[in-house]
Specification:
Shape: elongated
Helix content: 40-55%
Number of domains: 3
Length: 261
């Protein structure tokens, strides 16, 4: 498994030899290899991606493009949308305190930005009922989930049918970012996500396709042969080709922007 970052200007996100010599503490390239499987490196997770972005992609970008703001663009995979363990996520909460629910970070609410701890005096997660009581939003008889919410029946006019619905619509919960977005924003950069089902907008997909074609044509289809050919396959896609892929993606965006579908 490979995770890679591309830029339209230079192709693969990496340092040149001089930049690496001047910044030995920074990784030479953003690319990460992982051997999936129980007895190898495991499986690629959101934690792996966040670590890659934080320790490789961002430092390399800031070295190659000093005083610039990066715009990271990702597709809509579950890893890219995963939250930190202490994120404000209503679906993770119980109605009552304690139990198997995570301890969430402190937050603020209301026009005066009132501080609210998400744990009680016993250092237990408060649960939705106590959170709503402290915000003046609890109503007697509320259940954790109503039947419509359980059945995933969406209705924008249904705002107070159950505790989870009320909590999920609170501004601080609505504004919760994924772990990936948070690490990028904390570093002063920006993050967007491509529309679902539109891989033609993401030019790295063409990069993967070109590398896979090279690998199929040059691999002996043994595990050791695959390990040898994959790095060469990735390097076979040169910067000019990557730029062409990027321009093609821009043209698709322009077509959609002008209503041509």
């Amino acid at each position: 498994m490979i995770s890679e970052f591309l830029t339209e200007e230079y192709g693969r996100l990496k340092l040149n030899s001089q930049q690496h010599q001047e910044n030995p503490s920074i990784a030479e390239e953003a690319r990460v290899y992982l051997q999936p499987g129980k007895d190898r490196d495991g499986y690629w997770t959101s934690e792996n991606l966040v670590e890659q972005v934080k320790t490789k992609a961002i430092p390399i970008f800031e070295t190659v493009f000093p005083n610039c703001i990066a715009l990271f663009a990702f597709d809509n995979s579950s890893n890219h949308a995963a939250y930190r363990s202490d994120a404000l996520v209503a679906s993770r909460m119980n109605l009552k305190p304690g139990g198997k629910q995570p301890k969430m970070r402190d937050t603020v609410f209301g026009p005066d930005n009132c501080h609210q701890s998400m744990v009680n005096e016993k250092n237990e997660p408060k649960g939705m009922k106590q959170v709503l009581i402290e915000r003046g939003l609890w109503k007697d008889g509320l259940s954790a989930d109503c039947n419509l919410c359980k059945d995933k029946v969406d209705d924008i006019n249904r705002t107070d049918c159950c505790a989870r619905r009320i909590v999920s619509l609170q501004p601080d919960f609505l504004s919760q970012k994924s772990a990936l977005e948070e690490v990028i924003l904390e570093a002063g950069h920006k993050c967007i996500f491509y529309p679902k089902f539109h891989c033609e907008l993401n030019y790295i997909e063409r990069y993967w396709g070109a590398a896979k074609r090279y690998a199929r044509e040059n691999c002996d289809y043994s595990w050791s042969g695959l390990q040898r050919v994959v790095p060469t396959a990735l390097e076979s896609v040169d910067t000019i080709t990557i730029r062409r892929f990027a321009r093609k993606a821009w043209r698709y965006m322009d077509l959609y922007r002008n209503g041509i579908t």
